[in-house]
Amino acid sequence: MSKKKTKLSTPKWILEGYDSQEVYNKSKGINKNKKKTKKTFKIRKCPKCDSDNVGVVVGKEKTGEWECHKCKWKGKDINKTEINEEDFMKYLDEKGEEVS
Ligand SMILES: [Zn+2]
C-alpha cells in the first residue's frame, strides 16, 4: 500500500477550532436559514373609477371610511391590491408620469 498523501478535506470549522459547523457559520455570519423577507405594498383604489387618488375620510379613520378625490365616492369597501416591490416601483413610475 502506497502511502500517498490524500487530500483530506478537513472542514474549515475543524481547522479553525470551532465546536461545530453551526458555531462556525454563526461566527462568520453565515446563515443558511436566511429569512426571505417578501416586501409587499398595499395599493388602494376606488372601486368606482379605479383611481388611486383615495384617502381616509377625515374624522372617520376609525370606521375605515374612504373617499375618492376624483369621483367623490365614499365607502368602506375600497379596492385593496397587494403588490411586490418591483411592481410598486413601476406603479410609482407610472404615477410620476401622470403628475408631470
Ligand atoms: Zn373614484
Q: In what range is the share of β-strand residues?
A: 15-25%
Mean pLDDT: 85
Sheet with the most strands, sense and barrel status:
3 strands, antiparallel
Query: How would you write the strand order of the largest sheet?
Result: 2-3-4
Bound molecules: zinc ion
The helicity comes to: 25-40%
Terminus-to-terminus distance: 82 Å
Number of helices: 3
Describe the structure.
The protein is α+β, with helices and mostly antiparallel strands. It is 27% helix and 20% strand. It has three helices and five strands; from the N terminus they run H-H-E-E-E-E-E-H. The protein has a three-stranded antiparallel β-sheet, with no helix packed on it. It has a two-stranded antiparallel sheet with strand order 1-5. The N and C termini lie far apart (82 Å). Bound molecules: zinc ion.
Helices and strands in order:
Elements: H1 12-15, H2 21-28, E1 40-45, E2 54-56, E3 66-68, E4 74-75, E5 79-84, H3 85-99
This protein binds zinc ion.
Short description:
By secondary structure, this protein is an alpha+beta fold.
Which key features would you list for this structure?
three-stranded antiparallel sheet; 20% strand; single chain; 100 residues; alpha+beta; two-stranded antiparallel ribbon; binds zinc ion
